[in-house]
Fold:
Amino acid sequence: MKDTKTELKFFSVPEWKKEEKYLREQHKNGWEFVNVSGFGLYHFKKCQPKDVVYQLDYNPDSVSNKTEYVQMFSDCGWEYLQNFVGYSYFRKDASEVGDNEEIFCDDESRLDMMKRVFTGRMIPLLVIFFCLIIPQMISQNMMDSPVNRGLGIVFCCMFVLYLGVFISFAVSYWNYYKSIHR
Structure:
């Protein structure tokens, strides 16, 4: 039997909760998270099944003051695992986690993390969307040749994909915002 495994998984920008749940389920099934690399390659090693809580924090600035950043979470009992594209991964045995304990002490802190995600991830995507995809989609559809029609279809597909990402993030953000501001 293999002692390691790698799975290809993709979580969109606002799906950090889904990713945390995935990592927790893997650990419950006897697969301890080692790291994530490449484009969604999750690496695990065989372990005793155990309930372990995983938490993610989006903080691209954490690399500049990594020692203090990691120590802050370590003082609260969270084990630092890695940084990957701006997200920091932490874990803690579920028996040591209090009711609803998270690495964020309040809802406003979680909302602040979502704002950092928006600034770090969504703004560059919006720039690409408005400065590249939309102009190219329009210009390719205005020219009448098979190549331009093909490129027009490619840019239309990219338009739909980007729009889906924006809507997904906006809905996640809005739902979370509404849940803490009732």
Summary: The chain has two domains: 4-96, 107-180.
